[in-house]
Design goal:
174 residues; alpha/beta; three-stranded antiparallel beta sheet; 6 helices; 33% helix; globular
Length: 174
């Protein structure tokens, strides 16, 4: 909620030594946020530091969460993440949640895409893809859930079209 003064007018955000104070009380460095935003606008969101991506996304509402369960297929997962890295949708409106279903480590496969992920890959004992999807859905923060298998290569406009269809009240699948 915006802060209001005694006359009911919106108070300006406070300048602090660390940047601008957000409405929710946390302080963010204005310089770091500008650097991050400029990096995204330049089309290089995957090259940015994951910490700043996470920090910036905390201030924005995530619209879509893409949940990807995986099991012993790091090469296919890397190809899937690569296809997601060129999506036309605003990269700050969506996130990727990878769930390793008890398979071999996927850290090397996801390292180039870490800025897009929410806190790294989740891991569980091998219980199958349905259980992995449920864990990913539980840990995601998006208003819309999209499930993608690790061997899928979505078109560059997939996230944008999924989001638009759901906002129009359509059920999407396939």
């Amino acid at each position: 909620r915006p802060r209001l003064n005694a006359r009911g007018e919106r108070e300006p955000k406070k300048e602090t030594p660390h940047g601008i104070e957000c409405n929710h009380g946390r302080q963010r460095s204005e310089k770091r946020m500008k650097e991050f935003k400029n990096g995204v606008e330049d089309g290089h969101p995957m090259k940015l530091n994951a910490y700043f991506a996470y920090e910036y996304r905390q201030m924005r509402k995530i619209l879509l969460s893409v949940v990807i369960p995986t099991y012993n297929r790091p090469d296919r997962l890397a190809a899937c993440l690569e296809s997601l890295s060129v999506q036309t949708a605003d990269p700050l409106d969506w996130e990727v949640v990878v769930v390793n279903d008890g398979g071999s480590p996927v850290d090397e496969a996801i390292e180039p895409f870490q800025a897009r992920l929410r806190g790294g890959p989740l891991r569980q004992e091998n219980r199958g893809p349905a259980s992995a999807r449920n864990l990913g859905a539980e840990k995601s923060t998006g208003e819309i859930l999209a499930f993608l298998d690790d061997d899928c290569l979505p078109d560059p406009d997939w996230v944008e079209k999924m989001s638009a269809s759901v906002r129009q009240g359509e059920l999407v699948g396939g």
